[in-house]
Write a structure and sequence with these properties.
mainly alpha; Flavoprotein-like_sf; 5% strand; globular; 35% helix; 2 strands; Rossmann fold; NAD(P)H dehydrogenase (quinone)
Amino acid sequence: MCKHLEKLAQEIRKGAASVDGVDPKLWQVLETLQEDLLSKLSAAPKSDAPLITPSDLAEADEFVFGFPTRVSMMAAQF
């Protein structure tokens, strides 16, 4: 997860957590690029956020998505 996107996600999560009864979770999508290519792209280190699964999506009530870009395009995982 891009560090600036992760920071934004953490702030959104804090705001959502301030609402009674809301338990926001932060996930990331599995990286599909090989490590050598990521290093050539100077990709940010991986986040500590857990990887999301289809069952996580099915259990959620609401979503907020953030998409890092590569060469001005949405990352291929999405």
